[in-house]
Amino acid sequence: MNSVNVLILRAPGTNRDEETAAAFQQAGASTRLATINEVATASFRFSDSQVLVFPGGFAYGDDLGAGRVLASELNLKLRADMQPFIDRGGLVLGICNGFQTLVKAGILPGPMSKGQTVTLTNNDSGRFECRWVYLTANPSSKCVFTAGIRTIYVPVAHGEGKLVADPAVVASLDVALYYTGAEGNRNPGYPHNPNGSTKDIAGITDSTGRVFGLMPHPEDHIRESQHPRWTRGEATKESLGSSIYQNAVNWVKKI
Amino acid sequence: MIYSIEVCLKDGQPDPRGSGVARGIHDLGIHKKDISVGVSDFYWLDGTLTPKELDSIARELLVDPITQEFNCSPLQNNDTPEAHNITVTYNPGVTDPVEETLMKALADMGLSTVHSARTAQRYHIKGPLDQGELDIICARLLVNPIIQRVVKETPKAFAESPRYTFKLKHVDLLGSVDEELVRIGREYSLNRAEISAVKAFYAGLERNPTDAEMETLGQTWSEHCVHKTFRGNFEFEGQNITNLLKSTIMRATRELSPPWCLSVFKDNAGVVDFDGDWAVCFKVETHNHPSAIEPYGGAATGLGGVVRDVMGTGLGAKPIANTDVFCFGPPDFDFNRLPPGVLHPRRVFKGVRAGVADYGNRLGIPTVNGAILFDERYTANPLVFCGTVGIMPKQMSQQGKQKPGDKVVLAGGRTGRDGIHGVTFASEQLTRDSTELSFTSVQIGNAIVEKKVIDGLLKARDKKLFSRITDCGGGGLSSAVGEMAEETGVKVYLDRVPLKYAGLSYSEIWISESQERMLMAVPPANVEELLQIFADEGAEATVIGEFTDDRRLHLYFNDHTVCDLEMGFLHGGRPEMNMVAEWKKPLHPEPEIAQKGDFNEVLLGLLSAWNVCSKEWVIRQYDHEVQGASVLKPLVGETEEGPGDAAIVKPVATSARGLIIGCGINTRYGDIDPYWMAASAIDEALRQVIAVGGSLRHTALLDNFCWGNVKDRQSLGALVKASRACYDMSIAFKTPFISGKDSLNNEFEQDGKRISIPHTLLISAMAVMDDAGKAVSMDFKKAGNLIYILGATYDEMGGSEYLARMGYIGNKSPMVNFAASRKLMEDLSGATSRRLVRSCHDLSEGGLGVALSEMAFAGNLGAEVSLGAVPQGEIADRDDVLLFSESNSRFLVEIEPGNREEFEITMHGNIFAVIGSVNTSDVLRVEGLNGETIISLPLRALKESWQKPLRW
Fold first, then answer.
1. Superfamily of domain covering B2-151
2. Structural domain A5-254, CATH architecture
3. Is the ipTM of this complex over 0.85?
4. Domain residue spans in chain A?
5. Parallel, antiparallel, or unpaired for β B148-151 and B239-241?
6. Rounded CA separation B260/B239 (Å)
7. Chain A window 13-72: which residues touch B at a Cβ cutoff of 8 Å?
8. pLDDT in tens, B533-554
């Protein structure tokens, strides 16, 4: 397949949609931004796209809980389209608010029939925090977005990013990304784990490996000049977040 | 009927909101053991619902099944001596964004049987508290009576909005004389000369004005809208000054007129060229009085307002960065000394911070730069400056022009009673009654509505669907429509303006300052497409009138004419103000400070001073990464905790150019001399730009004056002196002013005594740098590198942090040597552009001692310097002067030994010296003039002192 089409779904309060588009474009994809209203009423639905993205932001102001209202809207307006899209091999990415939405809509960790089994709740600090974190990919995860990645350095910017679930559910999760120290070391503690997330989980995937959600923002580190310590000569290609988007594009091209 | 749903956390789930309240109780001085707080949310729904529907609303919308549970019991009062419940809800008429979202979500679910919703928060406080303590907790922590109240049970019914019956009102000017006329004038914030001019005008028309006409004149002629004091005529020291603003700040820009200034002092923000294809604009606003009354809402709407200024500049700019500068009373201010009706500085600080962060974060605009100052005199009059930078295609940088026949389209939020008379309130003195009198001046913001408007208007702009745009800010429609239609004329049908609730009169609609509204002129052929774009974004847009060619302001309400006013009089009929200003230099006690041998304690104390200490607690709660453009972030260094000077963003990904944003403010110098205070603020803003790698060549300035009572001659004299410094500095450094704003009469009256804020001038700087890849951060980079100080240190301790710590102001504040300072800045720019500079930090509050400490702990590298090598402008030969003087135009610079010669050649002709070097130790060591060690401190002690005060 030659062209990779990425549909980025916007809702009132969405942000980082343009950076997400830029990250996919850098990886060679074509991107389209559309509001939920446009998609729910338009005829094109998801059919032209191979990748569906729920970007970051504050959909509906996070009133009633982060991602909550959008998740409800998604279930009411687009649920019928989501499962077939995933079944025929589509990729779904939820970043930050998008991750919260996928989790609250029961799409992650899935299956959708089970409803919501995981949540992302208030950071342990009780505050919104913007800081850079090291993310290390789990090599045994099925996630197609994180394949071959070691450790990347990207910002978080959220107040509700702590993953919480019943211990049995946590044990069954396919964790794609962990918050770690700079060298990939586990159990790094605060502030490396910026929100107190269970087992330092930063991102999870579903049983197909094609639906992926994460709290941090790889799209905000696609150029070395975005690294907070580039003036100290510490920016490296390996630490860029671009690889997440490149993996998605490469995967679609291969099939 | 009204249904209740209470959502609580499940047992064992951590409750950060509750812990926050518990911390707040502790901060109030209530230090009882075993106090714990839990918070739950109440949702009250008015309508008809089956139990099943109620259950599904809770499950599908309100409850997170993993962490929360719910019940549908009505609120009951079940307090015990050990367990207290306080339930807080918004007052009727205050719009809660959550209600709006909830109603939308219910509509999505197909539940049209719910008419309205309210929310409340319930605080479950456990612990041995008596009623007096609970009252204090309510009053000082949980409830702001301006917008909230405590309820004991589920409301029986929601208050209904009263109906409005049309009745045209006239104001009897023609029959009023003398004191009665002056009283009417005061009602519309018009002074004696102004109300007389209005009366004369209407006498000529042989009729009385309508109330809407009076409101229009009052708003349009207000200090906030026309800056009549600043544009007035002054008699000062035997000279006559015609239009202070035009003859100083604006004159400098006119004389400099650089080609890259595209639109200055005429649009909602000043616009400069970025790279030939794009233009950038910058505006800084204040929202002081509303923030004093309701810190969260006041600050949030302050930010919302300045963002709209940028959206309404040219043909619409995209906001790309926010700045914020706050001035508060000290957070440790004694509760017992707090004037009645005044909120404690800590509460104001926390509320303002949260308001700005919540609003800015929700808009997806990074907050990149700012400052926070503390002074007791800000306790009753906090200052909240919010700035926004925007970008637009260069060909859209000029204000648009509408044609007669173009439609007037109002987009965004609905209109309610929010902020009525906010403009006139903004220019008036606060008293202890202000909190009760002025509640309609408090505006409640909804960031998501503004985000929808931004997204819609940028789409509409790119399709060229509107011919002109402006924001609805102070004065609401009356100012926005009145200004936009000055050259044409306009008809507005006020009954077509969408309302939040019924009951508003036509003049309330006309002057309401409801948030998140933009006004556009739209050619008739484009109206349909434009409305559809906003609808797709979920934003409301409505045609409310059309532009005419008769240069009159016509307002209608259901076919009744309620205003018919000549634009010529509205915009040209205001009599100028004539004022007498004077200035007498105050004499402060001369400090007597013994020479000391050890400055360890002093340095640690200065690092912990409120004005110096780390603001990381604030910065991290702002999203400074969104939009992905940051090049130099607010926190820099090895662990990303050091205080960066200016911020740099790279707004156009395909261009190498960067945009630098910095600021300068230091009010203490103004207690000695407002001229040098202003000059110092400009010097500081420019230092920040230069320190990160900018140059003076493409740097624009903004001024924000916050002044005391301008009926006071001395205060006016200070205004004249500061304005003159702005002119002199602008010309000397060839850095034009592009926009500015003033907020006057910031004083508080208590028991007949007036407490004025210190005269405060914020200078913001925006500079374009050719190559953002040449940015320099302030953290030390490598052991073995040389440390230079650039610029001479003078015995200018007046207004310094050092003297303040000793309880003095002093009489000699820092001055600026224009020629030497400009050459030094230009040459340092040359050195950074040749990549000779490894790190650079400007010297400001706390002088050399503080700057050196910050560079060392930010880079996690030790340093050893000798004061004997520091060039002295005049021989004071005191270690404390060299360490803590705040002389202007100085930098610390780190240079690799191999670049020493090239750097020194570049800096030839300036005053500079090597004072030491960077090392791998974890100690900062300073050798005094007599060769002995006067400072020797581990980096972690320095950093801890600096971080500790605001580690909330």
1. Phosphoribosylformylglycinamidine synthase subunit PurS (3.30.1280.10)
2. 3-Layer(aba) Sandwich (3.40)
3. yes
4. 5-254
5. unpaired
6. 34
7. 13-16, 18-19, 22, 35, 37-38, 56-58, 60-65, 68-69, 72
8. 999 898 999 999 999 999 999 9
